[in-house]
Design brief:
With 440 residues, the protein is mainly alpha-helical. The protein has one domain (12-437). The chain is built from 16 helices and no strands. The protein has helices at 12-42, 46-82, 86-113, 115-120, 127-159, 164-187, 192-213, 228-259, 264-300, 304-331, 333-338, 344-358, 361-376, 381-392, 394-401, 409-437. Helix 9 (264-300) packs parallel to helix 13 (361-376). The two termini are 28 Å apart. It is a multi-pass membrane protein. GO terms for molecular function: antiporter activity; xenobiotic transmembrane transporter activity.
Length: 440
């Protein structure tokens, strides 16, 4: 096993930024798959965008379930590395992959078997949109076996303090996706299916590269030798965040069902808005990964003061990202939406979405890095509880504010912004209280 990058010594800001930038790059590249698909599919019209948007909700449920394994394994591996326990590190890595394989196969099978019922939940009332959604779900659903595996590789390598390699590997996948999208969508006249197939091929290549290059850091041995206790430890830490993300996605599906009553333009506006919003989410997501690994190693090494300074530094960086994003969303919303579509209805709804959501970006960024810090100290239940409560409250708030005599569709966007602001205030307060309780 290769020696990990030691995050327990050296300049904190330099370490965090150096670790975060490649993670941000990797996050942007992961986002780029959907973004590139959306740009090309947008040329086919709002109906095609709505089709992909509908299917993507259920793909995201899979990502949420996978996060349970990724988070739990990442925390335990970082702690083991910080404590310099190599055999324990190997055990957690091996069992993470075993658990990932089992969960991915179960979820993919369920997704394909129930696809018609899942798409039918939205009651889109347009057979063409439903057909495109089903096609996209089948192909991208099959690609989840690669996507889930890639997430595991990224988190493990980040726990080793290595973030450049995942960035390089994901770059290859995105470049391939950029090349394949126009060829398959328009050149081979495959439409939505072409975009999905481009993602499938690209993700498969990324998995192959991870398998080959990760040997520089660890080698999987005794592939089928599992430990119930090790798997239980991973799930104990990962389950709260996994439940949070599954419920978060489920709440999003219910919100989308509410939005669907305004028609395909509203669905397309939300999908495009989410893609644009993911720019800030993925940027600060790099800081999430960096601060989680940083605090994880320092927690394992019992260096409390260094943990505190690491959080303060990440907090300041998150504030900067949030302020920049707020400015862009509030000042240039229509310009950003027009990158994807020219339909007037989608433009108006999407611009309103960005303006309203833009006001909460600062708080969302603070919440994300705080959640990463909670994971670093092995306390993911606290942010998960906060997220479940206030994300779930979006549904009744949206139903109330979206009444015609109040704010209509904008009321849905407002429910998202209001709850994000509350979470962004509450999470840091509770984390600082938790830090005071730590005594090595």
């Amino acid at each position: 096993m290769k020696k990990s990058n030691n995050l327990t010594v050296g300049d904190i800001q330099k370490i965090l930024v150096g670790l975060a930038i490649p993670i941000m790059g990797s996050s942007f590249l992961q986002m780029a798959y959907g973004l590139i698909d959306m740009i090309w599919i947008g040329r086919l019209g709002s109906s095609a965008v709505a089709g992909i948007g509908t299917a993507t909700f259920f793909i995201n449920v899979g990502f949420a379930i996978n996060s349970m394994i990724v988070t739990g394994a990442g925390i335990k591996i970082a702690h083991a590395i910080g404590a310099k326990e190599e055999q324990l590190t190997r055990d957690y890595i091996r069992n993470a992959f075993i658990l990932n394989a089992v969960v991915s196969l179960i979820y993919i099978s369920a997704l394909l078997f129930f696809r018609k019922d899942l798409i039918g939940f939205f009651k889109l009332g347009d057979p063409a949109v439903e057909s495109m959604a089903e096609t996209y779900m089948i192909i991208v659903g099959l690609s989840l076996v690669f996507k889930f595996t890639n997430f595991i590789y990224v988190r493990i390598l980040n726990s080793f303090g290595e973030s450049k390699l995942p960035f390089k590997i994901n770059s290859v996948g995105v470049i391939l996706n950029i090349v394949l999208d126009p060829i398959l969508i328009f050149g081979m006249n495959m439409g939505v299916g072409g975009a999905a197939l481009a993602t499938f091929i690209s993700q498969a290549l990324v998995t192959l590269l991870f398998v080959k290059r990760s040997r520089e850091f660890f080698i999987l041995k005794e592939h089928f030798k599992y430990s119930v206790e090790t798997i239980k430890a991973i799930l104990t830490l990962g389950l709260p965040l996994g439940i949070q993300r599954v419920l978060f996605t489920g709440f999003g599906i219910v919100i989308a069902r509410i939005i669907a009553s305004w028609g395909p333009d509203a669905i397309a506006a939300q999908k495009i808005g989410l893609q644009i919003e993911s720019i800030s989410y993925m940027t600060v997501g790099g800081l999430y990964g960096a601060v989680s690994s940083f605090i994880g190693q320092n927690y394992g090494a019992q260096l409390k003061e260094r943990m505190v300074e690491g959080y303060k530094t990440a907090f300041k960086l998150a504030l900067g990202v949030g302020l920049i994003t707020t400015f862009l969303f509030v000042v240039f919303p229509e310009f950003l939406i027009r990158i994807f579509v020219d339909d007037r209805g989608t433009l108006d709804a999407g611009a309103a979405y960005l303006r309203i959501i833009g006001l909460s970006q600062l708080f969302m960024c603070v919440e994300i890095i705080t959640n990463g810090s909670f994971s670093g100290i092995g306390k993911p239940k606290i942010p998960s509880t906060i997220s479940i409560i206030f994300t779930g409250s979006r549904i009744p708030i949206a139903l109330f504010l979206s009444q015609e005599h109040l704010f209509g569709l904008n009321g849905v966007w407002m429910s998202i912004a209001i709850t994000s602001i509350i979470k962004g205030i509450l999470s840091p307060l509770l984390f600082r209280r938790q830090l005071k309780k730590i005594a090595f």
